Amino acid sequence: MPGRQWEELGVDEALQLLGTVELGRIVFTRHALPAVRPVNHLLDAGDIIVRVQDSSTLGALLAAQEGAGVVVAYEADAIDQGAHLGWSVVATGYATAVTAPSEIERYAHLLQPWVEGTASGAIRIRPDLITGFRLRESSP
Q1: CA-CA distance, 52 to 21, in Å (whole number)?
Q2: Closest by alpha carbon to 99, among 107, 91, 110?
Q3: Under 8 Å CB-to-CB from 116, ≥6 apart: which residues?
Q4: Is the Cβ–Cβ distance between 115 and 53 less than 8 Å?
Q5: Helices (H), the chain
Q6: pTM for the whole thing?
Q7: Residues 95, 48: Cα–Cα separation, whole Å
Q8: Which residues pair with residue 89 across a beta bridge?
Q9: 14 CB-near residues (< 8 Å, 6+ apart)
Q10: Would you state the pLDDT for residue 4?
């Protein structure tokens, strides 16, 4: 198997790659411990938008918060497990509930839930820190 190299991504490239996939994982704090949930997302003007279910833990957490929101991390990747090539991006920032009815309606059309149930709204993550890496074949 050819050698592999680990390469850091710049912020612009990391965000561009994040926009090429629709599934990621949101990491938040639940009962003082890290919790991870798979969610689908889209990018909107540099923000990461995810939908939440009515009874989801993350939705309940955001409903209890005010002001700046809650700190979360969002991770998405595209890794070929057979070839051991691909990329991963992590965005860390504050998540807040989307409250404008026009935005909620727009995101409801753009982000279809992957499970049955009622989606109650959307969350906006404003990334403060974006990191990423690519696994690529080494040059000979």
Answers
A1: 18
A2: 107
A3: none
A4: yes
A5: 11-18, 57-64, 101-110
A6: 0.87
A7: 9
A8: 76, 132
A9: 89, 91, 130, 131, 132
A10: 84
Tokens for 76, please give them. 């998405």
How far apart, in whole angstroms, are the C-alpha atoms of residue 91 and residue 69? 15
Reading the block at residue 45, the tokens are 């003007």
Contact 138, 5 (CB under 8 A): yes
Q: Is 120 helix (H, G, I), strand (E, B) or coil?
A: strand
Question: Distances in Å between the alpha carbon of 26 and those of 49, 95, 134?
Answer: 11, 10, 20
Query: Structure tokens of 55?
Result: 């009874």
Q: Which residues pair with 29 in a beta bridge?
A: 34
Q: Which candidate, 125, 104, 116, 113, places its Cα nearest to that of 22?
A: 113
**Splitting the chain (140 residues) into consecutive groups of 10 residues, what average pLDDT does each group show?**
84 95 91 88 94 70 71 95 92 90 88 72 92 87
Question: How many Å apart are CA 105 and CA 122, to the nearest integer?
Answer: 9
